[in-house]
Amino acid sequence: MPTVAPLDLEGHCVAAVFLGDVPHFALADGVVHRLDHGHKTVQANDGLLAAFHDVANDRLITGGEDGKVFAIGAGGNAAELASAGKKWITSVAAGPQGAIAFASGKTAYVRFADGKTKEFAHPRSVEGLAFSPKGMRFGVARYNGATLHFPAAEGKPVELEWAGAHTGVTFSPDGAFLVTTMQENALHGWKLADGKHMRMSGYPGKVKSLSWSAKGKWLASSGAPAAIVWPFSGKDGPMGKAPLELGTRGNAMVTTVACHPSQDVVAVGYDDGMVMAVRFADAKEVLLRRPGKGAITSMMWDKEERRVAFGSAAGDCGVIDITA
């Protein structure tokens, strides 16, 4: 039976991540808690709005109401990377070669590893950011679609149009597909080679969490009473294919999904605080955590694939050891 080491904090957990092998919990007040030979804290933003785990550099990128972007390292060091003055930072992302992106209002910014920053203005507000895993390009979710920029080169961006408000964005691990979350309880995707559309609708709620499986063959999503897992193994992605529905519960909604680092298994967090692990092949379920005080807002597996860090909207966080 998995064991849970709880960490009860005050406030909404924006991100639960492992930096090195140390679990970190970033709360909405900007304090980052870590379990590193005891409970330790570091203050980052004054009011945290966005956080992104930079896997390549093993750091947490944060942005907030203070207009600042921080990088938090495994030792608890919080370094300011950028500032947008008094404007709120609403989205952050990390990319190749140490680059990061952040958004404030209608402007997206890319800060390169050498500290140089480039601005990209948009007609409407920038809602989400993501870097492609291949090459230096990043995607912006916006009203009526997405925009692809190539920050290291001069040239026009690529505009991907689809009516409606797009709130978040992700690239597939092979860089072949771009998928956005939408205001109207749906996902929308583009096959980047030919611009073909992929409509992924039918959700009863908004999709706020996406996670790609280890080899990028599946995309797990929240926003329903089950984790909705779309197949991406074919050349046209999920077009014409039905998704898997894993971990179905009639009386609860899935709020967070986190795919296992190497196996076709997904950790599923619900609005009542329960966490389950479900295998894609046969939908076998293992209860990882009983319901808690608040909806699960963030989860991450550790590198050894035996622990899951989780955070909730009510601050009841913790670490699940699945091998115990």
Automatic annotation (TrEMBL):
Name this polypeptide is given: WD40 repeat domain-containing protein
Organism: Mesorhizobium amorphae CCNWGS0123
UniProt entry keywords in alphabetical sequence: Repeat, WD repeat
SUPFAM superfamilies the UniProt entry points to: Quinoprotein alcohol dehydrogenase-like
Keyword Repeat: yes
